[in-house]
Amino acid sequence: MMKHGHNVTGAQCLSKFSGLKRTYKAVKDHNNKSGNGTRSWPYFSHMDTLLGEKPFMSPVSIVSSTGKKTVSQSECTSSDDSCSSNNEKPKKLRQTSNTEKLIEDLKKDRKLTEEAIERRHKENMQIRERLLDSFEKIIDILSKK
Fold it and tell me: Which of 1, 48, 92, 126 could share a disulfide with 52, CB 3.0–4.6 Å?
């Protein structure tokens, strides 16, 4: 990270990513409950591509106490067409490409933020210079009287 200009430790990265995971899970759980309005989060789509298929986000199996049985993927056979259409999962994208895309997006956001800060700084400096010029003119006028 340091060779790319980011002065952060591994512990800081771990803490940040844990917070992102926690926020992602909270938004996803909220949106999965019926009757709730949907929540949005700017990084949801990125985190969904990274974590959406992970077992800790969407469990492989769910235990029910109701006694009703559902068809699981392990019970499906190749000759049973009803299972293949219901339980097909989308192909998993390469995680490295998703991670690289997320990093690139974060770099772009950071660059835009830094450019905005620099622009505001220049504007503030111009305003202060005009204010100083105005004060100098007022002092010149008052000193001539």
Answer: 48
